[in-house]
Amino acid sequence: MNVSEAKKAFNTLKKKLRPACPIPMNKQKGKKKTPAYFTGMINMLIEANAANYPCDYDPKVLTTITKQGFPVRTLARRIDGAFPAPVNPIAIWEIKEYYYTTTFGSRVADGVYESLLDGMEIEDLKLNEDIDVKHYLMVDAYYTWWECGCSYLCRIVDMLHMGYIDEVLFGREVIKRVPELAKEWTKLARKNYKPMPQNKRKRK
Question: pTM score > 0.85 for this model?
Answer without folding.
Answer: yes
